[in-house]
Amino acid sequence: MALPNMYYADLKDSYLFYNIAQKTGAYLEANPDKHLYRMGIGDVSLPLCDAVIKALHEAVDDQAAKESFHGYMPECGAPFLREAIAGYYAQKGVALSADEVFVSSGASDELGDMLDLFDRSNTVLVMEPAYPAYVDANVMAGRKIQHLPASRENGFLPAPDESIQADIIYICSPNNPTGAVFSRDQLQAWVDFANKKEAVILFDAAYEAFIEEDTLPHSIFELEGARTCAIEICSLSKTAGFTGTRLGYTVIPKDLSRNGMNLNAMWVRNRTTKTNGVSYIIQKGGAAVFTPEGQKQIHANIQVYKRNAKVLMEALDTLGIWYCGGKNAPYIWMKCPDGMGSWEFFDYLLKEIQVVGTPGEGFGACGEGYFRFSTFGSPEDTKEAARRLVALLGKKEG
Last residue of a domain, which of 291, 307, 341? Predict the structure, then answer.
């Protein structure tokens, strides 16, 4: 008899966003005339920029001619894209060799696959509220998970202390779901802690392009000592609208070794065994993101989402509701009014004003009583949702 992985029995019954889809689906079935203002799942609403579309078309044409046709791509990524990404880091003052950059089909895939590098006996630290996949991927692998709760009191940016005994540390900055961003000093404390404990940080930098304050780090490799303790995982999904196109990248420095094993070399072996790489067409589109034209165009799109954030923040300011995020991140994390629970608030907004957000409880127990808004919707829907929020909650307060 083939034995299943029994750790799956330890997972929660259903995934957060599946629950949201079920609730919204049931509401629309009962109310087919209603329009939902979706600010829950962080999917983009703007199309790929012109530079990317042009590159994708050119790559398709390349595949139509024998002299420019590409079959299998290098499993770790095409040299032209790895070099472009290393050049992007150089602009931030981070020196990488191209073979320290690995091209992936997206950050979510890589965050799960990366666990192949680590023994099952390792203890994992997850700072919560957190992206649910951090926990679920490690539950599936049978690892012990240490939950480090964050709170309004520490700005949802917890600091390390000697009570923490962990081998793998997840850090997401700018954070999903809270939008909070670690300062250089705060992130340096975690780098120093990881090096001292010989832990490895999995640094999720999927939202780095939304940082607008010059003093905040975009990459963990801007910090001293990070090359000996960190892996950085990034995505073009939110940066450049690749949610439906799927492309990301991971940085593993050659300096990173544990117990005599070099993690960069291990990952080369993993990728050359388990993947056939990302398609030539998609990688050509991704390379266009890192051209001057591509950078200009994607940042114009990011500004649309930042204006959405400003509209929502102004609404919450009008209502006197506490929140964080929004300025350097595409998420706004708000306190539910009147002591409401996060799923209670979800149901209330859905029923009363057809606005959909994400209940904080879905990101960990310390998220109860909070609520996340995504700023990736259309400007028109965002403005109407903000108007409805003020009308509903202002009336409630009154």
Answer: 291
